[in-house]
Amino acid sequence: MAQATVNTEYMTLVFTAIMERSDYGVPGSPVWYEPTNIELDSIEIMGYPVDLKALPKGLVGELIGDFADDIDHWED
Fold first, then answer.
1. Residues 13, 5: contact at Cβ < 8 Å?
2. Residue numbers of the chain with a pLDDT score lower than 50
3. pTM reported for the whole predicted model
4. From 27's CA, which of 10, 21, 65, 74 has a CA 20 to 30 Å away?
């Protein structure tokens, strides 16, 4: 399981993902890992933790879509 944190002016979002091995399918091709099953693990707004269960699922989905695609570094 990998984790990434996104900090904005007002929010801190922590995402988790499973890193899936990828390659070009040819012997000797480069290997890299891509995040799959990205989930929003926690969120703070202006330093206050927010209960994810209190947020509408649609909002959580939009936050994942808006911020997770721009993450370029995941930590194991």
1. yes
2. none
3. 0.86
4. 74
